[in-house]
Amino acid sequence: MRRLFLLLAVILAGVVQVAAQSDIYPLSFEYDADNDDYYAVVQIEVAAGDTLQAIVTDGENVYFYVYTDEADLYEGENLADFIVEEDGVINVDVISVTEASGEIRVLGEGTASTTTTTTGAGAMNAVEAGEFSEGACPFEVPSGANVTCGVLSVPENRQMDTGATIELAIAIISARSANPLPDPIFYLEGGPGGSALAGIDSWYNSPYGDQRDIVLLEQRGTGFSEPSLNCPEMDTDDSLDAVEACRDRLQAEGVDLTAYNSRENAADVEALRLALGFDQINLYSISYGTRLALTVMRDYPEGIRSVVLDSVYPPNIDTNYNVTTDTFQLISMMFEDCAAQPDCAAAFPDLEARFYDQLNVIADAPPEVTNADGETAELYPEDVIGTLVEQLKSTGLVSAIPASLDAFAAGDYDTYMDLATNGAGDSADSSDDSIGLAQELAAELTADELAEVQDMAAQNDAAGIADYLSGLFDLTAEETDMAAQGFIQLASGGGMVAGGEPPDIDDDSEGMNMSVQCNEEMPFMTVDEAISRAEAMDMPDLLREVNLAGTQNEFDQCAVWPAGQADAIENEPVVSSIPTLVLSAQYDTATPPWWGDLAAETLSNSYNYHFPLVGHGVIDGGSCPVSIGLAFYSNPNSAPDTACIATMNDQFYVP
User: Fold this and answer.
1) What is the DSSP letter of 69?
2) Considering only Cβ atoms within 10 Å of each terminal Cβ, which end of the chain, N or C, has fewer?
3) Nearest 5°: phi and psi at 388?
4) Residue 603: CB partners within 8 Å, gap ≥ 6?
5) Composition of the chain by helix, strand, coil, percent to 5
6) What percent of the chain has pLDDT over 70?
7) Which of 637, 596, 641 is nearest to 617 (CA)?
8) CA-wise closest residue to 109 among 179, 49, 69, 159
9) Max alpha carbon distance in the chain (Å)?
10) 269 and 171 in contact (C-beta within 8 Å)?
């Protein structure tokens, strides 16, 4: 039942209430042609003393009406003054002059707090700009790169307001264009615990830097940021003793392990945006970085122009309830897809059955193999399963999985190890990836060599470039021609950067990983339920046991890692109308494609695509996903041209 009233002029953007706990009711707006506005109707279960909190994004002139079937209870431009008087079910009508999205939250008695000027449901009190100080880069900047480095000082724990501050390392790669666009790309690394600056060399020649600055934020607790939550104690020891040793050291150093989570991380992103003076930014996020991006979208939407979610890890996925079953489903999909491809099926008949039979064989008698380091070691089922999980999420390895498993099933362990480690040498992207090839080669050129190539590229001398490259690299004629075209295309965008050594930094902060996971994931799950769900699915026992061992280990680690417990909102879907591009890989065991589908369900202005035979981090899957990303950033309110997906290689490698 919809009630129509005079719409009062009020814009809700920027006015929310921060709550400790809540029940969420998404708002689904429909257009009413008769009244030329948008409306949403929701029924809500409430208890006496509850208050309501409305989160409406993009809406203008928003008005609320609260009623039961028997009585009118409240009307107004916000819900701040409405308190539920008795248990029951109420109806809330929300009317907006413009298209909107959002949700209503039920706050338990006494949980409402003061209104702030942030815009998201889980946001901190109004975030102040961090203090950015330029300084020397903590790595070698190669010739041709224009990089500004510095540190951002922010509070360690905004909720507790302890006064302690931390420093986040920042690197800004200037756009190659002489007239860059005003909205940069902020890159959010995965993990949790990954170092953004450890991979800065991959961004120097990125097409994303043609028109926009690329800002790399070293998240709190990671990489060059201080303090670092890296745990060298765990480098060769994953026992609980090692976890406790790292915990004790960090706490003795005064680190507040409860402050390293997505909520604080998102506030850091906003503090950096404000410190650098950008009105709006674009986000490019990978893996855990997508969870962080979603948190920024929820908490600080006003400063976000558009978002790319690459290999999506949504907050409402309950990882350990799904990791074992998801892994089995992805492995099964791979076998089914091979069986459906005539060449693959003919080359590797009955592959699935033979693979699992051979796992049982080596469980009884592990063979000796030579690993990638040239060392002799016994091969156990858990090694094969772990390697398969890595193959499925690795561009360059995934297409050779059936061939590698066929060799394994036949007892040809040398061929198996070679294919599982190195792949088949074929490109996952059969489209013309000339730019990608040129980027790879540029990273290996010296400054003088690059200057030679740049001079020829400026003259459109493709033949000269191809001849020059053939003397430096072992390439086919087709590859040198492709690379030459790529260099010419890159030169038109402002030039290339000579390769340099990657920064010398540990790119895996175990402490940050545990602080995030133990704060945001584990409190909403139990190990018994995780085991029960895995046991309910019909799968080989060896596969179940290997995956559940990892689940048990994570619960054990969190039992001794004092990360605190997140509010319920950190386990709930993010509702947003910010333009969002969702990219997922076909068999990604780290973030399965249906995780991206789940996130997209509550992103009303999103475009969601799956890519064949690429791995975790679709951005590395060739020119096709990159071209889609570039098109999206150029016009985020229109679906990008995705015709290239149909040209990508989707056939498994057959020798």
Assistant:
1) S
2) N
3) -60, -40
4) 574, 575, 576, 577, 578, 580, 582
5) 40, 20, 40
6) 90
7) 596
8) 49
9) 85
10) no
Nearest Cα to 523, choosing from 112, 21, 105, 26? 21
Contacts of 137 (CB under 8 A, 6+ apart): 147, 149, 171
Residue 9 pLDDT more than 70? no
In the block, which residue shows the tokens 């307001």? Answer: 161
* DSSP state letter for 643: G
How many whole angstroms separate alpha carbon 390 and alpha carbon 384? 10
Tell me how far apart the alpha carbons of residues 608 and 590 are, in angstroms, rounded to a whole number: 18
Residue at 114: amino acid letter:
T
Residue 306 carries which side chain, given as an amino acid letter?
S
Task: Identify the CA nearest to 17 among candidates 84, 113, 111, 109.
Answer: 113
Give the whole-angstrom CA distance, residue 593 versus residue 612: 11
pLDDT tens digits for 289-338?
999 999 999 999 999 999 999 999 999 999 999 989 999 999 999 999 99
Judging by DSSP bridges, how do beta strands 115-116 and 16-17 pair with one another? Answer: antiparallel
The residues facing 583 across adjacent strands are 310, 609
Phi, psi angle pair for 14, to nearest 5°: 100, 0
13-34 mean pLDDT = 61
The H or E element containing residue 388 is helix 381-392
Tens digit of each residue's pLDDT (9 = 90 or more) over 127-151: 888 899 999 999 988 877 899 999 9
pLDDT score recorded for residue 16? 31
Which residue type is seen at 407? Answer: A
CA distances from 53 to 13, 26, 245 (A): 13, 12, 43
Residue type for position 297: M
Report the DSSP pairing between strands 185-188 and 30-32. Answer: unpaired
Residue 44, SS3 per DSSP: strand
Facing residues of 312 across strands? Answer: 287
Tally the residues of the chain: 655
Beta strands in 500-622 (DSSP E): 580-585, 606-611
Q: Which amino acid is at 78?
A: N
CA distances from 517 to 160, 259, 262, 506, 559 (A): 20, 12, 10, 19, 12
Q: Which of 168, 40, 20 is nearest to 99 (CA)?
A: 40
pLDDT at 413 over 50: yes
CB-CB contact of 37 with 94 (8 Å): no
Cα(416)–Cα(286) distance, integer angstroms: 30
Please report, as a single letter, which amino acid is at residue 587: Y
pTM of the shown model:
0.78
432 token code pair: 């013309």
**What stretches of 166-287 show up as alpha helix (H) in DSSP?**
240-252, 262-276
Rounded to whole angstroms, the Cα distance separating 603 from 203 reads 28
Cis check: omega of the bond before 592, within 30 degrees of 0: no
CB atoms within 10 A of CB 367: 12
CA torsion through residues 563, 566, 572, 578, sign: negative
Tokens read off for 225: 């940021």
Cβ-contact 559, 523 below 8 angstroms: no
141 contacts 120 by C-beta, under 8 angstroms: no
Collapse the DSSP code of 575 into the 3-class scheme (helix H, G, I; strand E, B; otherwise coil) and give the result: coil
Q: State the Cα–Cα distance between residues 141 and 143, nearest whole angstrom.
A: 7
636 alpha carbon, distance to own chain's centre = 18
Lookup result for tokens 């008949």: 349
Predicted local confidence at residue 331, as pLDDT: 97
SS3 276: helix
**Amino acid code (one letter) for 439:** Q
Backbone angles phi, psi at 134, to 5 degrees: -70, 150
What burial class does residue 393 get, using C-beta atoms within 10 Å of its C-beta: 0-12 exposed, 13-18 middle, 19+ buried? buried
Residue-wise DSSP of 100-138: -EEEEEEEPTT----EES--STT--SSPPPPEEEEE--S
Say which amino acid occupies 233.
E
